[in-house]
Amino acid sequence: MKQLSDSLLIQSYHKAIELNLSQDFIDQIKLEIRERSLQHLIKEQASQVS
């Protein structure tokens, strides 16, 4: 996950949720998002989709 760009990481998070992948996998992505301080991008993209 460290090699993914920020954008691809966020896209992967949304796709993992959409595909209902394992919660452990989603939690790993969320941890990486937190470590990169990208939580605001999740909220921004979620509001753009609505």
Number of domains: 1
Helices and strands, in N-to-C order? HHH
> What portion of residues is helical?
over 70%
Gyration radius from CA atoms, angstroms: 10 Å
What class do helices, strands and sheet pairing give? mainly alpha
Categorize the overall geometry.
globular
Q: Determine the N-to-C terminus distance.
A: 27 Å
Major beta-sheet overview: none
Report the total helices: 3
Strand content: under 5%
Mean pLDDT: 89
- Write down how many β-strands occur, each being a DSSP E stretch of 2 or more residues: 0
- In the predicted model, the low-confidence regions spanning at least 5 consecutive residues are none
Features:
0% strand; 50 residues; mainly alpha
What features would you describe in this structure?
- InterPro entries: Sda (IPR015064), Sda_sf (IPR036916).
- It holds the Pfam family Sda.
- This is Sporulation histidine kinase inhibitor Sda.
- It comes from Halobacillus locisalis.
- The protein has 50 residues and is mainly alpha-helical.
- The chain has one domain.
- It has helices at 6-18, 23-35, 39-49.
- The radius of gyration is 10 Å and the shape is globular.
- The model has no long low-confidence stretch (mean pLDDT 89).
Strand-helix topology:
Blueprint: H1 6-18, H2 23-35, H3 39-49
Helix pairs in contact: 1-2
